[in-house]
Amino acid sequence: MSGQSNFLDRACEIVRQAIDEDIKQNWEESLKLYKNALDYFHMAYKYEKNPKLKDLIRTKMEEYLDRAEKLKTHVQTPDDKRGRQAVGANGKGTSGEGGSGTNADGDDADTKKLRGALSSAILAETPNVSWDDVAGLEGAKESLKEAVILPIKFPHLFTGKRTPWRGILMYGPPGTGKSYLAKAVATEAKSTFFSVSSSDLVSKWMGESERLVKQLFTMARENKPAIIFIDEVDSLCGTRGEGESEAARRIKTEFLVQMNGVGNDAEGVLVLGATNIPWQLDIAIQRRFEKRIFIPLPDPEARKRIFELNVGTTPCTLTQQDYRELASQSQGYSGSDIAVVVRDALMQPVRKVLSATHFRPVMVPSAEDPAISVKKLTPCSPGDPLAIEKSWNE
């Protein structure tokens, strides 16, 4: 048991070295290391008894064998027929016209692929959410205006030691409006807005996840002023520990370097993060978020406003006193909880109509002209004198 474990540990260690050399584009050294690692993987596979682990080892062997074959083809190609960037660390060939590996814009095809993967994260259109659409949270809105909007609209105010925040973390219970606030920031800021999550930055290819992080910040600097919003940032930058994977550690390290690293121009780029569990963020990542804004559960006035916003223009007989009563009875509810309650309440009349077997005629104000009454049908009991037996779809 110990011997096969040693084979697997040694294989993983050599693969990490191979990936490092691969990223550095030391193709020949990387190829040697991949071959060496495959030998150890083969021995581990031969003696492994666990079927699931054997399947995992076989999958990894196929992946690294494919990569080694691509590197071998690349290394054996004469220098005058291949460029320095002719093979990407994700295992895909990147040679362009004339063997230069670059496109007309000067980007190699691998970089172009990374940019394409991140293009969906850029909001081409503003979400059209104003500050007024966010109920309550006045303190958080003022802090965001000061930290985000002010430096963008009045950059001349921030000179000398008066510098804008480079990282802002919004934290608080789930459903309190952190992501909604970010949409309001995107609408008001009038700047390039990148909205990313772990699915945008985590790749199955070894070494590509951290390159996506680096490319994200490069694109933000090219399009500044820019805001990078990372929802559920704890899923990418959690506390470092023994159980985390090498890929997760690399992503975290790249975030640290890009957010506050030596030689990186962060002028005009703001990182806006949101999390429900700030205590699970890595300590170094927490330090990068200089400004931290708590997003609390809504107070009674905010809950009243949330009820009004969610009911909207739906016809109803609710009065201001009713809204105040609803707000007082929803202590401890988040904005998301209230939205679910209202949606369920709005469906109650529909459910009543669907299950009704008898209807009676009533006179109600016309939707076009309230001064005119029109005849409608409403559900009633079978014993009603005016009851008409029919189903809702008749």
From TrEMBL:
One Gene Ontology biological process: endosomal transport
Keywords of the record: ATP-binding, Endosome, Hydrolase, Membrane, Nucleotide-binding, Protein transport, Transport
GO-annotated molecular function: ATP binding; ATP hydrolysis activity
Bilayer topology term: Peripheral membrane protein
Highest taxon, organism lineage: Eukaryota
GO cellular component: endosome membrane
InterPro entries registered for this protein in UniProt: AAA+_ATPase, AAA_lid_3, ATPase_AAA_core, ATPase_AAA_CS, MIT_dom, MIT_dom_sf, MT-severing_AAA_ATPase, P-loop_NTPase
Sequence ranges of Gly residues compositional bias: 90-101
Ranges of compositional bias, category Basic and acidic residues: 70-83
EC number(s) recorded for this UniProt protein: 3.6.4.6
Enzymatic reactions: ATP + H2O = ADP + phosphate + H(+)
Enzymatic class: hydrolase
Subcellular location: Endosome membrane
Stretches for region Disordered: 70-110
Chief location bin: membrane
CDD domains, A to Z: RecA-like_VPS4
Domain MIT: 4-81
Span of domain AAA+ ATPase: 164-299
Similarity remark: Belongs to the AAA ATPase family.
Protein name (database record): vesicle-fusing ATPase
Taxonomic placement: Eukaryota, Fungi, Dikarya, Basidiomycota, Pucciniomycotina
